[in-house]
């Protein structure tokens, strides 16, 4: 029967015997003869020849008939519609606040719950984002794999859930979660890559070892691999990850939460005790070597030398008066009176809206979320060329080499020196860039399509 459909797709009329689904495929555009009746088949062939000569639109009709009924797209759609609610188990290393964890929260909050039944398994303690997942009526299970025997607990849990898809996030979850899923009999496994820097002095030895193992197993364990950035995809392909399985879905941002907001700007500035004209430069990130807070402080010292009235805001877990390294760097660069350490905050959209420039000193991130968040608030960005930073910022800011803090300070100063009209223009350009390329709804649709294609694939 396949050869009949293939012939019709090429515009060829068919005369066939009535076996299997031949008559259904041919429909009223061909001719059917009873089985084992050579005379009837000869008559059908003759009729087919006559029709092919007398109907100038026949070839187009034949092809359209196959496309409408039997194209791969139609088959995939019917298979998708026939499926029950899809259970996806997301296995992640932990649920403390971070870029990957926050993106997962945003994704799950917007998945079509009529089609998808998401569940979360954390391989460490639940973390401070757990209540937010639970508030979405998402099952969150903690399986602490610091106890190696809990690996078998993970396998047993997956066997009990019987998910259609296991989607692992972050390296350790990619390795251990995928292995457990395979032992549990799960056929559809996806990995997620969210890092673009694996330098020895910035990344733990254990993590680099896991990455090497994942690269070796990438042809066997996962069905597909999702990267959040072009840079991360290229780096991991060079490390040996299976190129054929790679997919790319950039992060998205909530444009209702992150927006140009004069009221939020005024509120945060009042809290800090600065007026609307005070140049305010920010860095929002947990304390981590990859974020390079000390580099930001070095750049801040240079900026303060050129613009004494400038002020600097640092926000994130571990960014407070208890952080000796941060305090020492602030004192060394003589910016103690100009710097605010706000620690972990829940009002990031308001803080972004209060800034004049966002400065990223990062050594390595696949897709720095906070750049997109700042841009959505109309804040131009000066950033190091880490991961997809240059792609995210585009023409709404400036990019410098990784580790070039003098270049970063110069970039910030150039943005601060813009005229009022140029500042308004770049502010709108920043927001428009996110609207066009990184809207949260588009990201969710791409993930839903990815899951659909993963399930329908052989």
Chart the SSEs and their pairings:
Layout: H1 2-9, E1 15-17, H2 22-26, E2 31-33, H3 38-54, H4 58-70, H5 72-82, E3 86-92, H6 99-110, E4 116-122, H7 130-135, E5 139-142, H8 150-161, E6 165-169, H9 171-183, E7 189-193, H10 205-217, E8 224-227, H11 230-238, E9 246-248, H12 262-272, E10 280-284, H13 293-306, E11 311-315, H14 324-332, E12 339-343, H15 348-354, E13 357-360, H16 369-376, E14 381-384, H17 389-393, E15 397-400, H18 405-416, H19 420-437, H20 440-456
Parallel strand pairs: 1-2, 3-4, 3-6, 4-5, 6-7, 7-8, 8-9, 10-11, 10-13, 11-12, 13-14, 14-15
Helix pairs in contact: 1-4, 4-5, 8-9, 9-10, 12-15, 13-14, 13-18, 16-19
Uncertain regions spanning at least 5 consecutive residues: none
Helix content: 40-55%
What separation lies between the terminal Cα atoms? 20 Å
Strand content: 5-15%
What strand order characterises the main sheet? 5-4-3-6-7-8-9
Number of strands: 15
Characterize the overall form: elongated
The total of helices stands at: 20
> What does the largest sheet look like?
7 strands, parallel
What number is the mean pLDDT?
91
Cα gyration radius (Å) = 28 Å
Structural class: alpha/beta
